[in-house]
Design a protein that fits this description.
Layout (H helix, E strand, L loop, with lengths): L1 E10 L2 E7 L4 E5 L6 H13 L8 H4 L7 E9 L2 E9 L4 E5 L2 E2 L10 E4 L11 H15 L3 H23 L5 H44 L7 E6 L10 H14 L1 H7 L10 E6 L2 E2 H4 L2 H23 L4 E5 L7 H13 L4 E5 L13 E7 L2 E3 L1
Parallel strand pairs: 3-13, 3-14, 8-12, 12-13
Antiparallel strand pairs: 1-2, 1-4, 4-5, 5-6, 6-7, 9-10, 10-11, 14-15
Helix pairs in contact: 3-4, 3-5, 4-5, 4-7, 5-6, 5-9
The chain binds adenosine-5'-diphosphate (ADP) and magnesium ion.
Adenosine-5'-diphosphate binds next to helix 1.
Length: 373
C-alpha cells in the first residue's frame, strides 16, 4: 500500500501544504513545535478516522479559520483511493473517491503509530491497553470496526439510562424494563468484542515473542498476554463461556450498576497484562524491557496485518528513534528494511539520517508549518 501524496489546508499550524511521498521511507526533520507530529496526525486521521492525540475537532483546525481539509491519495495494487477529510467544529466528513463513506469499508487502509507515549503503555491506564487491542480488532478482523462502533453506541445508551435511573430522572420500574430490554444486545456485543480481543491477541502472541527475542538477541524469552476479566481465564475461553460469565457478572452487579449509574460489566472494564517469562511486565520488567515489549508488539502488528490482508499498513514513527537505545534502533531499522511497509519517521535529530538507508528515502524539512525538500 502506498501513500502517494498529502495536501493540507488550515490543518493545525499549516495554511496550505503539499507533499509527494517516497514509496518506502519518508523522513521528517525539524525543531520542536514546527509541525512534524501534525503531519503524522494528518496521515493517521485520513487512514484511521481519528486523531491519536485525543483531540477535539476544534484543536485540529488552524486557529482563526473554520474548516480544515486533509486530502491524500493511496494506491493498493491497481486500486486508487482518493481520500478527503473535511473537519469543522461539529463534524468530520470523509470522502473516498468523492463519495461519502464511513470508515467501515476502509478498514483495510490502516496505520500503525509508534510514539514516545506508546512506550509507556504498559504503565499507563488500562484504557490505553484496551485501545491497543481494539485497534488490532479493527484492523485485522472482519466486522471488527462495526462491532466496536455498535458496542460504543449501546454502552452510551445503557450508561445514560443507568444514570437517569440512579438520579431518579425516570420512573424506576419503567427504567428497569428498558434496561432489561437493552441487556441482551449489550451482552451479545460485549461478549463478541471480548472474544475478538482475546482471539486476535492470541493470534499475534507468537509474533510478539519472536520480535522480543530478536531485539534481545535471544531465543529464550517467553511472552504471553493475560486478558483480565473477572472469573475467566482467557486461555480456554470461547464465546459461549464469555457470554455466560458476563451474564453472571451483570446479575451480580445489577444493583451496584443501578446505584452508581454506570455500566460496571463489559470490555470497557477489562485490562491486558503483558507477561514476560510468566511475570507481569508492569511490575517485573525494567523500563527498557517494557519498551522492547511495546516495540515488539508494534512490529508484530505490522507482520500480522500483512498475514491477514496480504499488504502492510503504514508505519508512523513519531520522534521515537532517539528514545530507543542502539540495539532497539537497529532492530527496528532492520525490520523496516525486511518488510515493505511505507514508513514515515519524524525526528529533531539530523544525525538520524545517516542511520537510515538514504538511497530509498525522501527527506522533508519542516519549519513553522512550511515544508521544504
Ligand atoms: N489549531 C492550531 N492552530 C494553529 N497552530 C496550531 C494548532 N494546533 C497546534 N498548533 C501548533 O502546531 C505546533 C506543534 O506542532 P507539532 O507537529 O506538534 O510539532 P513537532 O514538530 O514538535 O512535532 C505548535 O507550534 C502549535 O502551536
Ligand atoms: Mg512532535
Amino acid at each position: 500500500m502506498v501513500f502517494n501524496n498529502l495536501s493540507l489546508v488550515n490543518f493545525r499550524n499549516f495554511n496550505t501544504a503539499e507533499v509527494e511521498f517516497n514509496k518506502r521511507l519518508n523522513i521528517i526533520i525539524g525543531d520542536n513545535g514546527q509541525g512534524k507530529t501534525n503531519i503524522l496526525e494528518a496521515l493517521y486521521l485520513l487512514t484511521e478516522g481519528e486523531s491519536f492525540r485525543y483531540s477535539k475537532n476544534e484543536n485540529l483546525i488552524k486557529i482563526g479559520t473554520s474548516t480544515a481539509l486533509i486530502r491524500g491519495s493511496v494506491n493498493n495494487d491497481d486500486m486508487n483511493y482518493k481520500l478527503s477529510l473535511k473537519i469543522t467544529e461539529s463534524k468530520k466528513e470523509l470522502l473516498v473517491n468523492d463519495k461519502p463513506l464511513s470508515h467501515t469499508k476502509l478498514r483495510r487502509i490502516s496505520s500503525v503509530l509508534f510514539s514516545p507515549e506508546s512506550l509507556n503503555i504498559i504503565k499507563e491506564s488500562a484504557e490505553e491497553r484496551r485501545a491497543l487491542a481494539d485497534q488490532l480488532v479493527e484492523q485485522t478482523t472482519l466486522g471488527g470496526h462495526t462491532l466496536l462502533t455498535d458496542y460504543k453506541k449501546v454502552l452510551k445508551t445503557r450508561n445514560r439510562l443507568l444514570k437517569d435511573i440512579s438520579e431518579e430522572k425516570i420512573n424506576f420500574s419503567m427504567g428497569k424494563d428498558t434496561l432489561d430490554s437493552l441487556n441482551p444486545s449489550f451482552l451479545k456485543l460485549a461478549a463478541e468484542l471480548t472474544f475478538l480481543r482475546i482471539s486476535t491477541l492470541n493470534e499475534i502472541r507468537p509474533e510478539v515473542e519472536k520480535a522480543i527475542n530478536n531485539i534481545h538477541f535471544s531465543n529464550s524469552v517467553k511472552f504471553d498476554f493475560k486478558y483480565i476479566i473477572s472469573d475467566l481465564d482467557h486461555r480456554d475461553s470461547d464465546l459461549e463461556k464469555i457470554v455466560f460469565f458476563l451474564q453472571k457478572r451483570m446479575q451480580e452487579l445489577e444493583s451496584a450498576e443501578l446505584k452508581s449509574g454506570v455500566s460496571l460489566v463489559g470490555p470497557q472494564k477489562h485490562d491486558i497484562s503483558f507477561l514476560y517469562n510468566g511475570n507481569d511486565s508492569r511490575f517485573y520488567c525494567s523500563q527498557g524491557q517494557q519498551r522492547s515489549i511495546i516495540l515488539a508488539y508494534k512490529m508484530a502488528q505490522i507482520v500480522y496485518h500483512y498475514r491477514v490482508h496480504g499488504f502492510y499498513p503504514f508505519l508512523l514513527l513519531d520522534d521515537v528513534l532517539s528514545e530507543l537505545d542502539l540495539t532497539k534502533q537497529e532492530s527496528l531499522i532492520s525490520t523496516l528494511n525486511q518488510t515493505e511497509t511505507q514508513t514515515f519517521v519524524s525526528s529533531t535529530d539530523v544525525s538520524l539520517l545517516s542511520k537510515l538507508s538514504m538511497d530509498k528515502a525522501s527527506v522533508f524539512k519542516i519549519r513553522d508549518g512550511q515544508i521544504s525538500q
